Amino acid sequence: MELLEKAKRRILDFREKIQDLPWWRKGLLLVVALALPAGILLATILFVLWKGRKK
């Protein structure tokens, strides 16, 4: 239970840090956060297409 409380506290601290950021840094953080899953998805699609052509 202590671990759960510690995790909740860290999440709240992170939220406070994000709220204190200027608007342009929030936007940059959002772009970076969305670019990672999009890059993984794109790499997966390209890999599947590349493997499909070899057969």
Q: State the major sheet.
A: none
β-strand amount: under 5%
Discrete helix count: 2
Intertermini distance? 52 Å
Approximate helicity band: over 70%
- The tally of strands reads 0
Instruction: Tell me the structural class.
Output: mainly alpha
Give helix and strand order, one letter per element, not per position. HH
- Which radius of gyration do the C-alpha atoms yield? 19 Å
Shape designation: elongated
Mean pLDDT over the full residue set: 91
Low-confidence stretches: none
Structure description:
The chain crosses the membrane at residues 28-50. Keywords: Membrane, Transmembrane, Transmembrane helix. 0% of the residues are buried. Helices cover 93% and strands 0% of the residues. The chain has two helices and no strands. The chain has a domain at 23-55. It has helices at 2-20, 23-54. It is mainly α. The longest helix has 32 residues, at 23-54.
Task: Produce the secondary structure layout.
Layout: H1 2-20, H2 23-54
Keywords: Membrane, Transmembrane, Transmembrane helix
Transmembrane segments: 28-50
Brief write-up:
This protein has two helices and no strands. By secondary structure, it is mainly α. It is elongated and about 50 Å long.
Give a quick set of tags describing it.
single chain, 55 residues, 2 helices, elongated, membrane, transmembrane, transmembrane helix
